[in-house]
Design brief:
Elements: E1 22-24, E2 36-40, H1 41-48, E3 57-59, E4 62-69, E5 71-76, E6 79-84, E7 88-91, E8 97-99, E9 106-112, H2 119-127, E10 135-136, H3 145-158, H4 167-189, H5 205-217, H6 224-231, H7 235-246, H8 250-268, H9 273-279, H10 285-296, H11 300-306
Parallel strand pairs: 1-3
Antiparallel strand pairs: 2-9, 4-7, 4-9, 5-6, 5-8, 7-10
Amino acid sequence: MEREDHGSARTAHGENQTPPVRRVRYNPAGSVRLPIEITTIDRIRRRGGLAEFAAPQRPDFEMLLAIEHGSTTHEVDFMRYDIAAGDALWVHAGQVQLWGDVRRLEGIAVIFSPDALPADVVALLRTFGAFARNHWADAAAPGGPFLSALSALAAITADSSGPGDPAPRAQARDHAATHAAAAALLLLAGTAESDASTVEVEPPEAFHWFFDEIERSFAEHRTAAWYARRLGYSERTLNRLARTHAGLSAKELIDRRVVLEAKRLLVHEQASVAAIATRLGFDDPANFSKYFKHRAGVAPGAFRDAQR
């Protein structure tokens, strides 16, 4: 499933060594494997024990928290958020997260695999910029539509059915849970806190294809020309799509993903700079260092030292 903390395991400035990041797989509780699990922060805390929250983790699933009581910090990919009652936090698959004091939090936790949502829902969430965001302050206020949708999801998944449950009933429950989760996420992504001026017309499929291909191939390919050939578009088209829907050139969008992964590896793993360069497709550590410094403003080793 998923758990972690950061209070004593990693301090941003005091520790000599950061604990290695731990990959966590989607493994819902119970005898029936649902595509979406709704539980509580207390249950995941007791299920894993506090030790599970003592180091950075990289889940392969989506995790949504609705905070009902308490406050702490939560770090996601080098961004630290102050979270409190009424807030929602959504950590996306592949991101590195570091909990604050998990003992101080109570609330709802929704965990689901990245492919649990219908494609049209994912497209709408992308339009709202939901996958580029982690924290929504005051979005989980009592009595609001987001929490109401989560309550509906909890009621559906609480209608427990065992392995011998008739297939149509199980399928109906799974579809209902998926639609309830989609409703909650869309309500969250479209909250009034989101600036309406930033919500754009849905990006065309070509942009989604480009974005997804970057996610698959950034460690092997870093040129816009390669992605253009791969997708059957011109570089000019990719640049137009990237600037329109991400505010960056195609090359800048690719580089941003490479640098993020480099930062994750530098801070959360003990591999040498040379080994990280190899993992990211660089044939020469010096080239990697120059590439990283040009885009991050600091050499890889200096970035690592500053984060420990």
